[in-house]
Amino acid sequence: MNEKDYLLLKYIAEAQNLTKAAELLYITPPALTYRLQQLEKEFGVPILTRSGKKIEFTPEGKYLYQYAQKASTELRKAKDYMLNMANEAQGTLRLGVSRVIAHYKLPPILKEFVNLYPRVEINVKTGISDEIYEWIRNEEIHVGIVRGKYTWSEQKHLLKEENIFIISKNKINLDDLPNIPRINYKNSSDFSEEINNWWYERFTAPPLITMQVDTFEICKEMVMNDLGYAIIPQIFLYPDDPLHAFELVTKSGEPVTLKTWMLYRESATQLAIVNKFVAHLLALDFMNDT
């Protein structure tokens, strides 16, 4: 069993379909099936059960997949450590970044970092903050950038805190919100909880959610076309937006805010690339860069 087999089991687990897993591996389905048969012969146990197009790991296969995940992580860490033994920033830096920060902030940051350290390769995974948090917990990434409240006992730095706004095409009376269509977009569970806490402090009726869209860009376009209101962080707003914006505050007058954090493990700082990137990010003025 080798590193390619670790990847093979990973893609089978994710795709739950041999054809799709083969596509991810850039091999043919017969080649994938042959390799599975070789692994089953090597370990003397069945790895998969099949029911039509659906596949599942057997108990033995599930154990082997979990072993492969751990072995892959340890091998990756060993490669990273050996590349950085000379304290020179080189190798692959794996980042998990909230899609909002990836869209609005990340490209120029990475461009400058790569210019400073040309021997570094950047591997970026983007998603909602809940996904980033799972990746950093499972050591799939070196550094995670998340938005919201997350329990993290290791290294954690506040990068940005921003206000939250209600936006609408035309001016609206906040007391009428329960009767006005709301447009939601996919976000972290923490952000949704903050909005719900604010809402039920003011209203007993639930919000009238008529649209649930994938991205903040779609959400904002819907609002601009007067299809409803939305509740969004300040980072989405521009001074020239043709929208009415109302800052979200609690009944006690406290603004409702969203914080952006950088998370990483202390052990990751053994790598020069992680140390350099952390220092690079902390040197930026996220707070005043809206």
Automatic annotation (TrEMBL):
Keyword entries, A-Z: DNA-binding, Transcription, Transcription regulation
Keyword Transcription among UniProt keywords = yes
HTH lysR-type domain boundaries? 1-58
| A GO molecular-function annotation | DNA-binding transcription factor activity
Q: Which domain of life is it from?
A: Bacteria
Give the matching CDD domains. PBP2_LTTR_substrate
- InterPro entries given in the database record: LysR_HTH_N, LysR_subst-bd, WH-like_DNA-bd_sf, WH_DNA-bd_sf
Q: Which family does it belong to?
A: Belongs to the LysR transcriptional regulatory family.
Q: What is this protein called?
A: LysR family transcriptional regulator
